[in-house]
Design a protein that fits this description.
Length: about 600
Amino acid sequence: MTNNRYLWAVGKDLEELPTAELIKGRYQIVKSRSTHLWLDTLPDLAPEVPDKLEPVKPYLLLHPYQLHLPQLYGVCTLDHTPEILLLENIPVDRTGRLYPSLISMWEKATPVRQLYWLWQILDLWTPMAEVGVTASWLEPENIRVEGWRVRLTQLHSAQTATLEDLAVTWQALLPGTSPVVQESLARIIQHLPEIKLEITISELNQLLLQQAALQPLRLRVVGATDAGPQHLQNEDTCYPLLGDLPSNNQTYDPLIPFLSIVCDGVGGHEGGEVASQLAVETVKLQIRALLKEVSEDPQLMTPELVAEQLQEILRVVNNMIAGRNDEQQRESRRRMGTTLVMALQLPQQIVTAQGKRNSHELYLVSVGDSRAYWLTEEYCYLLTVDDDVANREVRLGRSLYRQALQRVDALALTQAIGTRSADNLSPKVQRLIIEEDGLLLLCSDGLSDHGRVEESWQGLMAEVIGGKITLETAVDQLLTIASQRNGHDNASVVLTYCSVTPEYPVLLNADQKSVVNLGLPQEQDSFLFPASAQLLYEDSEPSLATPETNRWRSLSIGESTLGKRVAMGAGVVALTFLVGLGLWSVINPTSFQQQWQRIFPTRSSLDRPQ
């Protein structure tokens, strides 16, 4: 894996700097890409820090939004020139190529992705307005996209940007907007300067969920935990474990596959295990009530309301553990607690022309240093920010991150569930939309420490997504990595495979007539529970295949039970399939083309760095 540390230089007259030699004996200008793109040839050395932090405060205060925004790495001081800011976490691939701009990818994007990009921008508007850098969204080449993720190359604070300015910028996108949402989006943009931002975000969110709901959604989830080679006791707890997944003759747990949790207990052997188990069981109880409320209430909950409810749930959990500490008169370091990272696919029902469909919303909640990642064959996103001293110092504007990492207590936790009053707890909640196939990984620091996820995700995840190994095997391999390459701690892993791609074709039951599923959006609330739980939203009967065989059902299922009938019926199935494709392409050419591009994307339609 390439470990090059590429940086984005922000300063004056960069084009006049020599490119044939290292700047300050350290930085190489990557002239073939941009005079702004530098390579740190000595990444193990701490960079220079600015003389004054006030001019760079926006980068520090926006540190929690690093999924989208760059971080301040350091500065480079040269004779007779102002300090050059050096940014990390910039939108480039492992070879230093910038990811494409939003405007260059706009016409190629699906309707749901177009809306999702804009929703992310509005979601970031308020925190960026508070530090005066909303002008960053007015420069088209400054806005880059990596799959569904919107990213900025740098922050601009030279001018104050208003929502009216943003509306003008978005107007330029309308000609390339998908016809499916063009008219509705035009109305939203037209009223953007006139009404409250909260109303605009709500309207855009409604349109986004309507488009997301038109896709199918399958979820498979499995988790496991391991004490590790150096410990006899496991203070980690995660959900669901294999034992939580119901077999064919069991009633399914309504939490599966919507909920996944990883907790890492703190407070010593006598308390950490109890705290993590108590947290998981209490969260499960509270989420059951929330899911019941969602299923009975036709009114959609806004992301803000959901976030408030999830934060309140964690405060209830906190008070349960804190109360146990008080009962046992635990003080200081003896007080037990736990980290937590939780993912909830909230199945709110969206009314569409095809019936009620899942909203595809994924909520992440985190406290402590247990993490969530989004993985595809192309990229690995760290979705959460650790609650440790280093991140706190940056967030409060007191230090650069690389500078804070040099502290002895840099990785010490700043909050955990149960150690203090709930008044002091600040759970972080974010909302994502599942609009592509990928893997959601939750893990404790027994795996994530020392960058083990970033080192190992690509090959392993490609095998999972390609159907070569099951989720169970992937979880086992990740725990092996944790044991062999970290080994200092307990480790827990929960993987959720999320798929929005229709299966073509799917032979559902060898004892029934051959069925060809074209993946047309139809109302369905079926549940599948193979070895790793699966949720299916499409018009088909439940399949009991394992995740490994289910992906290749049309090739493997039924050979032992159908015998000669498979061979005799193959021609009929193929003919039916082709006729169905033909009818679909005539009746609904737009839907047909979108699904065809999803299954067989052309080279030009792929998100590639430029």
